[in-house]
Amino acid sequence: MNDASPALENLLTETRAFPPSPEFAAQANVTADEYDEAVADRLGFWADRARGLLTWQTPFTTVLDDSRAPRYDWFTDGRLNAAYNAVDRHVEAGNGDRVAILWEGEDGSERRITYAELAAEVARAANAIAGLGIQTGDRVAIYLPMIPEAIVAMLACARIGAPHSVVFGGFSADALHSRILDAQARLVITADGGFRRGAASPLKPAVDDALAKGGTDVEHVLVVRRTGGDVAWTEGRDVWWDDVVPHAPAEHEPVWVEAEHPLFILYTSGTTGKPKGIFHTTGGYLTQCAYTHSAVFDLKPETDVYWCTADIGWVTGHSYVAYGPLVNGATQVVYEGTPDSPHKGRWWEIIQKYGVTIFYTAPTAIRTCMKWGEEIPGGFDLSSLRVLGSVGEPINPEAWMWYRRVIGGDRCPVVDTWWQTETGAIMISPLPGVTATKPGSAQVPLPGISARILDDAGEPVGDGQGGYLAITEPWPAMLRGIWGDERRYAETYWSRFPGRYFAGDGAKYDDDGDIWLLGRVDDVMNVSGHRLSTTEIESALVAHPWVAEAAVVGASDETTGQAVVAFVILRGGDEITDLPTGEDGGEAIVQTLRGHVGQVIGPIAKPRSILVVTELPKTRSGKIMRRLLRDVAENRAVGDVTTLADGGVMDLIQQGLAKG
Ligand code: PRX
């Protein structure tokens, strides 16, 4: 089990609890009754939510079809369209003038987009994409910064039933290429660039490089103009968004798809070197996104101003920027840039400016802001806030308390929401009007969700005990598979505990039966709330000609939760002639290898430190013992080495480090 979790140390001593105020509880969207309702009839509960929160073109009669388990199908005979649910129906209901997106550019530019305007823009984009030959079922890769066109592009794809595959703009050309190939995307939607930390940062060159690697089915690249920078142009392939979208008709008949029609693919790191294309379908996903967005954040669409800081390149940006809030008719802030640009109070300034009432962010950001000092948020009026959310990694009680006190003025409930790319939507979280929240705990499965902590043998553990988190009943927003790899889906998630979904997280019940997440138990790291695979970074390192072997671990880090630490063995022999030597040689090697990982995967995967060693600790069967390396990386006494093939290796590594 991953013993690096900051939540673990505090778990035994944390006894604080914060019940909702009577005023909050009295106005909350959801009361404790919903737990009982869902226990009494789980499928009926979800069927009601699906009917109440979505508009169906053909109503469903089947709720759950488990005949193909572990592939579970929801609302199978119903038909609907995601974009229609996110936009058009709000206009039809008379809310076309409501602001959907309050967009703030990093450079201070602003755009206010109403639901009526969004509906027209999505329809135009859908027509333009269809004009480029994209049909229902075709895949479209989206590689965009946080600009409104990113959301428009996703919805336009959804409107014609073309599954989108959003690739985070921080990923490299290599990573983009492999994702385009795997999904066999026919179109890429990108921009000339975006603004980050005060500078224009180009995006299109990565698309050009990715496509130059060949083998793809991409016929067109649709390019949004954002920075105005120069771009290379491939005639016949590349098309400016501005040349086709604004001229396209603002009417488009949505394609009514079956509930199980794929809505999107999103690649995430697993325990092997190859990212998994997690795919989600339409009806169940939207149902749970909409329900959780309303229940967990207590959204009042007429009055709230909601802001989730996630990028659309991650699942949080899909479920709680693009789909959940829009399906619920919310008004939301979308911000292009980083929290420190042009100053460290930028987020709080935005909250003050727009009167944000619900704020959803990641622990790593909260810890960073803590480090900057509370006088920075203290300089802004944050009194509009009423609910705070956290997602992406365990939040340590200290950061939770700071968030509640400094940002929430001791008045806002803090909801720590546990879920995954695979679960599609929030699974374990307090309900702000019901639960007495505890600093650092995600606490309870939501109504309609069945989760248990199991021991090694798959038996449920009791209060006060720890084990592996499993989801014991299918849920509407669950992944439907790994794109193109059904076997890997069954093996990864359903073989550890047959019949139950294995989440890959360690967890523990406290004495009240509340759940505390303890971090990953597999070879997946969580750096700043982003999932990275140890194996994937190892493969990237070994692909460099200087590297013979590599082992990567996630070491606990005060700000980012975990940080990437790599141990590498360099190649000997005469064939390597360009290895830097001399006094600065070591540093030059490390910098080159860090840059190399950045290039293969993306800057987020660059190791915080790289240690050059002569041996790696391995079991007799040859498996790298990452547990021991984690001890070294975290400066702990090295644990049990008795299963090591060569017990002296750890001494060697530690001596080497002591010298270095
Ligand atoms: O380890 C858990 C952690 O993030 C993993 C899922 O990562 P990803 O698919 O990228 O999705 C992140 C955003 C939903 C989980 O397996 N995780 C996520 N939220 C929490 C968390 N760990 C503890 N507490 C959370 N609230």
TrEMBL record:
Residues 93-483 form the AMP-dependent synthetase/ligase domain. GO terms for molecular function: acetate-CoA ligase activity; AMP binding; ATP binding; metal ion binding. Transmembrane segments: none annotated. Residues 33-86 form the Acetyl-coenzyme A synthetase N-terminal domain. Acetylated. Deacetylation by the SIR2-homolog deacetylase activates the enzyme. Its EC number is 6.2.1.1. Keywords: Acetylation, ATP-binding, Ligase, Magnesium, Metal-binding, Nucleotide-binding. GO terms for biological process: acetyl-CoA biosynthetic process from acetate. Catalyzes the conversion of acetate into acetyl-CoA (AcCoA), an essential intermediate at the junction of anabolic and catabolic pathways. AcsA undergoes a two-step reaction. In the first half reaction, AcsA combines acetate with ATP to form acetyl-adenylate (AcAMP) intermediate. In the second half reaction, it can then transfer the acetyl group from AcAMP to the sulfhydryl group of CoA, forming the product AcCoA. This is Acetyl-coenzyme A synthetase. It comes from Salana multivorans.
